């Protein structure tokens, strides 16, 4: 198919076109009746009537050829009174839907047709009055059409802005969901990493201690079973959150820190805990402190199983919270692991700081300072 594709006329378009056609037809009949008193031949009156009705019929096609029909209307109105109403509608259509340049050309064409009309119809009124009155009507119609056009453009602009705002909001929501999923991935690393470290330690103990007593084997097996069950439960929670459109992974709290230390002790890692942090701690700061201790204990289980670990968590409102995990690490490298990189980012997010490395005594030290508002 060639040419411009036009949308199918809607029910509203049919109603509007019918009303406009009826208005133009009524106007044509009234103007024709008024023009019968002009000193012109009956043949011209007949052509006037037929031309006016024909131009009214063309209004059904004004959306497809607005400029062409408006120029045709200017030609017909050089001699026809009955075509006046339809021509006004065509001029208005061009003004609303076409560029300003087309409107200017159509207006000038109709202005010229008015001058020719006064010579052909030989009106009783002075030609200046006829021309001035006709031009004023056309100018009023053009002004009204320009107002309608500007109002439509304003509404379209507002709709476009609303669409853009909706798109931006949707993208921001997707970005927020992406950040949430990234946070969930970190939580999965921290939680499952600790659980699996416990499994590894006890499984290794069973493998390398064939002389262990039945009681020791049973205790280690029970810890392995409980840790595996809890790891599976944590994994189910993570998968459930990832599948859901909106949700949060259950987060540990600062109050759970002694429980974490006790579970690590049960895994066979001697932990000395210095815990002195009275007062309400902000939730995000407390959770960060928990994750730092958890990562330190997990690393101790990996790199120095069975060696004593010192954990210090002290602070007060207004002074900040100090978190420190020290353990022997004879074979530990000081390079950044993914867990330590994540901890550094966590500390920075709460406006704290974190450092790690070997002490002069050769131990590995993980330390952080976190803000604690007064």
Descriptive overview:
- Residues 1-5 have low confidence and may be disordered.
- The chain is α+β, with helices and mostly antiparallel strands and 374 residues long.
- It is rod-shaped and about 130 Å long.
- Helix 2 (42-57) packs antiparallel against helix 3 (66-76) and helix 5 packs antiparallel against helix 6.
- Strand 2 and strand 3 form a beta hairpin.
- It folds into 2 domains: 11-166, no CATH class; 253-374, Histidine kinase-like ATPase, C-terminal domain (Heat Shock Protein 90, 2-Layer Sandwich), CATH 3.30.565.
- It contains 10 helices and 5 strands, in the order ααααααααβαββαββ.
- Residues 181-245 form the Signal transduction histidine kinase subgroup 3 dimerisation and phosphoacceptor domain.
- It comes from Kribbella qitaiheensis.
């Amino acid at each position: 198919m060639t040419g411009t594709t036009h949308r199918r006329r809607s029910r509203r378009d049919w109603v509007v076109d019918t009303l406009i056609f009826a208005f133009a037809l009524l106007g044509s009949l009234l103007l024709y009746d008024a023009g019968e008193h002009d000193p012109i031949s009956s043949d011209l009156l007949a052509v006037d009537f037929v031309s006016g009705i024909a131009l009214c019929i063309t209004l059904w096609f004004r959306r497809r050829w607005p400029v062409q029909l408006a120029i045709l209307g200017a030609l017909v109105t050089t001699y026809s009174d009955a075509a006046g109403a339809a021509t006004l509608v065509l001029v208005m259509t061009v003004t609303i839907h076409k560029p300003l340049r087309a409107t200017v050309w159509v207006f000038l064409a109709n202005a010229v047709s008015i001058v020719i009309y006064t010579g052909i119809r030989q009106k009783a009124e002075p030609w200046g009055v006829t021309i001035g009155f006709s031009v004023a009507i056309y100018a009023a119609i053009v002004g009204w059409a320009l107002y309608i056009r500007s109002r439509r453009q304003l509404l379209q602009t507002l709709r476009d802005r609303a669409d853009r705002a909706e798109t931006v909001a949707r993208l921001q929501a997707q970005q927020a969901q992406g950040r949430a999923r990234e946070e969930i991935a970190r939580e999965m690393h921290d939680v499952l990493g600790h659980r699996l470290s416990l499994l590894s330690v006890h499984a290794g103990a069973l493998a390398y201690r064939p002389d262990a007593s039945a009681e020791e084997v049973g205790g280690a097996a029970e810890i392995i079973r409980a840790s595996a069950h809890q790891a599976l439960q944590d994994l189910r929670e993570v998968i459930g959150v990832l599948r859901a459109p909106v949700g949060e992974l259950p987060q540990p709290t600062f109050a759970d820190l002694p429980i974490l230390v006790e579970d690590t002790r049960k895994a066979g890692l001697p932990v000395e805990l210095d815990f002195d942090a009275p007062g309400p701690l902000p939730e995000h700061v407390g959770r960060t402190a928990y994750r730092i201790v958890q990562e330190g204990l997990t690393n101790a289980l990996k790199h120095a199983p069975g060696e004593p670990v010192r954990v210090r968590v002290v602070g007060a409102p207004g002074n900040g919270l100090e978190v420190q995990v020290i353990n022997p690490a004879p074979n530990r490298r000081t390079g950044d692991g993914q867990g330590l990189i994540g901890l550094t980012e966590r500390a920075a997010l709460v406006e704290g700081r974190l450092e790690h490395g070997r002490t002069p005594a050769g131990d590995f030290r993980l330390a952080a300072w976190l803000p604690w508002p007064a």
